[in-house]
TrEMBL record:
<dbReference type="Pfam" id="PF13302">
    <property type="entry name" value="Acetyltransf_3"/>
</dbReference>
<protein>
    <submittedName>
        <fullName>GNAT family N-acetyltransferase</fullName>
        <ecNumber>2.3.-.-</ecNumber>
    </submittedName>
</protein>
<dbReference type="GO" id="GO:0016746">
    <property type="term" value="F:acyltransferase activity"/>
</dbReference>
<feature type="domain" description="N-acetyltransferase">
    <location>
        <begin position="16"/>
        <end position="182"/>
    </location>
</feature>
<dbReference type="InterPro" id="IPR016181">
    <property type="entry name" value="Acyl_CoA_acyltransferase"/>
</dbReference>
<dbReference type="InterPro" id="IPR051908">
    <property type="entry name" value="Ribosomal_N-acetyltransferase"/>
</dbReference>
<keyword id="KW-0012">Acyltransferase</keyword>
<keyword id="KW-0808">Transferase</keyword>
<dbReference type="InterPro" id="IPR000182">
    <property type="entry name" value="GNAT_dom"/>
</dbReference>
């Protein structure tokens, strides 16, 4: 795996930027708010309950994942006030098969502003072109209307229901699979 691709053009659209994690008070505040969200805490490895030490460990792990090319976790920053409000992360573990998956979350106080859509579209365009991954996948639970609409707004097509696909919160869940594929394959 190429460990040092050029990072995405950071401007997700005029209102949002994408950048790597930083060990900063702002990014720790983002981890803290995410840890208070039951669903984000179940879906991800954000430390819940939150502590500054666990928050720093979390950020260091994200930086390490990016350095090794295991994943490209990018913080979504609102341009107007430079506040970190969420994450989109491309995971490359099936890159040798021409596939990668992407996840995303936005903290509750910043939802409904188009951040997830802009970030997902930018990260996906980047993975398809810069990383030359032919097929991008994402998974979302059928009840998660916000996530399904985000996927569709970012150009993903629903392919089908994967039954009992993934453990979330200690229970196996059905997930819809969505994909975006490179137009030149
Ligand atoms: C899902 C999530 C990322 C959406 O983030 P967001 O920044 O609010 O999304 P956007 O503002 O870009 O909205 C995208 C679309 O979803 C719709 N939407 C967002 N939240 C919604 C909700 N709760 N119910 C219905 N529709 C919703 C928006 O109206 C928009 O639709 P449109 O393009 O048709 O207008 C956010 O709610 C979240 O982080 N949830 C918890 C973690 C999660 O579920 N992550 C995804 C795992 S697969």
């Amino acid at each position: 795996m190429n460990n040092a691709p050029t990072l995405p053009e950071p401007r997700a659209d005029d209102r949002f930027l994408l950048r790597p994690w930083r060990l900063s008070a702002d990014d720790l505040a983002l981890v803290r708010e995410a840890a208070d969200d039951d669903y984000i805490a179940r879906l991800t490895t954000v430390p819940a309950p939150y502590s500054d030490e666990a928050g720093r460990d979390f950020i260091t792990r994200q930086q390490r994942r990016m350095a090794t090319g295991e994943a490209w976790p990018l913080v979504i920053v609102r341009a107007a006030d430079q506040r970190p409000i969420g994450v989109t992360s491309v995971r490359g573990h099936e890159r040798d098969q021409g596939r990668a998956s992407v996840g995303y979350w936005v903290v509750g106080s910043a939802r409904g502003q188009g951040a997830a859509t802009a970030a997902l579209r930018t990260a996906t365009d980047w993975a398809l072109t810069e990383l030359r991954i032919p097929r991008m996948e994402l998974y979302a639970e059928p009840w998660n209307t916000g996530s399904l609409r985000t996927a569709e707004a970012a150009g993903y097509l629903r392919e089908g229901l994967l039954r009992s696909w993934q453990v979330i919160g200690g229970r196996r869940r059905d997930m819809y699979m969505y994909s975006r594929v490179s137009t030149n394959t």
